[in-house]
Structure formats: structure tokens, C-alpha cells
Amino acid sequence: MRQRCGRVLHGKLFEDDENSKAKIGNDAIAFTLYKKEVAMWETLSVSGVDKEMMQRIREKSILQAQERAKEAAEAKAAARREDQKYALNVMMKIEEEERKKIEDMKENERLKATKELEAWKECQRKAEEQKRIQREEKFCEQGKQTEEERNKLKHKSLTRIAASRNLAAKGRNSENIFLEKLKQDSIPAPRSVGSIKINFTPRVFPTALRESQVAEEEEWLHKQAEARRALNTDIPELSDLKEEEKNPEWLKDKGNKLFAKENYLAAINAYNLAIRLNNKIPLLYLNRAACHLKLKNLHKAIEDSSKALELLTPPVADNANGRMKAYIRRGTAFCQLELYIEGLQDYEAALKIDPSNKIVQNDAEKIRKIIQGTELKS
Known about the structure:
- The protein is mainly α.
- The protein is built from 10 helices and 2 strands; from the N terminus they run E-E-H-H-H-H-H-H-H-H-H-H.
- The protein has 3 domains: about 80 residues; about 80 residues; about 160 residues, Serine Threonine Protein Phosphatase 5, Tetratricopeptide repeat, CATH 1.25.40.
- Helix 9 packs antiparallel against helix 10.
- The longest helix has about 120 residues.
- The chain is elongated.
- The N and C termini lie far apart (about 115 Å).
- This is Dynein assembly factor 4, axonemal isoform X4.
- It comes from Zalophus californianus.
- GO terms for molecular function: nuclear estrogen receptor binding.
């Protein structure tokens, strides 16, 4: 049976003391309350409190408890918001540091690429300057030789004229001296000596005119000029590349450096991008074929070598070295696929370009022995 009771205590208690508590057990409730003033109470409750006053006191206590609960909830919510704000600030700070780290890495890579590009441009400039100096020295040397030959011819001509005059004078000794004087006066005086500078048109190929293939050489030069102009920059996925990354020559040099470091996959990526920008440069296919050989991508090595040979036409002295490398790399790929006859054909084609190459001669001889051994076994 439940009973409802209420009392107004004699003294005042701490209203918000968290240590106040109530314990239920053994059919009883034990309250632990703390006084505001430490003193002995004469009675537990105040006498003379009617029911109506008790009701008001109870309602007031309930309202105060609700206010305290509301304030506690608001304080807890505020603390939670502060914790969330702090966590968000920490997260934003971490993200900002990470973003700055990435930006620094990008900036370092950009500076590195720019430095490499400038170094490459400087090397190109020095190479062009060296070529220009060599051309000028060659032209000066040719001019000196021409001047010497002209002076020799002039000296011979004057010598012949003097000899002719001496012979004519001896033959006319018996003639009238006045007539001889008149004839001698009618001979004009020799022309004054002067020098004429001749600038010869430089020739790209060093072979003599009677031995060169002028039409083929001009066609090759025309193809090279067209290849340098055939730059494709309209590829959508390449729009975010930097300017130096859109230069096929720079990418080719980058691939060559990666190949030297034995990073063949990265080198292939550089050559791939260069070929997408300009697919008319035979050296790009030739170098990529070397990478495929290192990675044992033999069919791709054959394809790239064949494409390089297709672009290295017409066959002239200027592209002989590239054609020989293409034949050797394709022949090597054929041999590794055990297609020795096809491989030997490519090695023999390379020997036609450079018959004195001992290494290619030895390799071709080894392939012949393998073919002969296979035929004997069969």
C-alpha cells in the first residue's frame, strides 16, 4: 500500500547539491540531505503548515527542479557543441596542413620540371651555337680555299700572258722599231687585282653530288620539317598539362633519362604521351621499342620497330643509324620469339647499312648457326 506524504523541513538545504540522494530498500527510503547551516534542528519539520501551503511548496520545488534540469541539459548541449566545434577545427587544421603539404609537393615538382626544361633549353641552345660556329668555320675554310685557288689561276694566267709577250718580241726583232712600238702600245694593260667573296650554300648531307640521292635527301628533309610541325594539342585529356609537358622533344629526353635509370614503365609512359602529341617522330617509336624489349613485350617491340622503319623513309645517309637500330631491335624480338629466319633477315638488312659492324656480324652468325642446328635436328 502506497502512502503519499510531505514535510516542510525545519532548516534550509542545499538545493542543487549533487551529493543529495535517496536510497530505497527494506521497505524504507533513506534520504541523504545536506544542510546550508550546520546546526541541530529542534524538530524535523515546521509545524503549522496546511495542505494548501504544502501544495505550493511542492509545485515550487518541481519548477525549480525542472529549471535546474533544463539548465543542465542546455549546459550539456553547449558543451557538446563546443566539443564538436573543437573536433571540427582540429579536422580542418589537419586538412589544411595536408592540403598545404600537397601544394608544396606540387610546387616542388613544378620547379623541378621547370628547372629540367630550362636545362634542356640551355643544352639545345649550346648545341645550336656549336653547330653555328662549326658552319661558320667551315664556310671560312671553304672561302680561304677558293681564294687560294683563284689566286693560283690568276698567277698562271699572268705567267702565260708574259710568256706570250716575250715570244712575240723575239719574233719581231727584225721589224721596224716604230711599228713594234705602235703594236706594243695597242696592247691593254693588265687589269687591277681585286678579291671577290663567295658564300656557298651549305649542304646538309656530306656526300659528293655525283654520289648523293638528291631527290631522296630532299624528301627526307621535307618529311622531317613536316613532322616537327605535326603537333596535336587538341586532345581533351591533355588540356591540364603544363607547357613543357606538351613538348614531344622534352618528353623524349625525359623518357631517355628514365630509360637510363632502368625505369622502363615510366619511360614508356613518357614516350606514349609524346607520340600522342606528335606521331610522326620515328625516334619515339624506336626508343619505346627498346623499352618493350627490356620488359619482354616482344610483339609491341616488333610493332614499334616496324613503325619506326615506316617513318624512316626514304632511306638516306642521315637516317641510316636509326634504320639499323630498328632492324636490330626487331630482329632481336623475332629471335626471342624463336622466329630465327625473320630475325636473321633483319640482321642482314642492318649489315647492308653498316657492313663493318663486328657486333652485328657476330650476332648474325650465331643466328645462322641456330637455324642450321634446327634444320639438322629436323
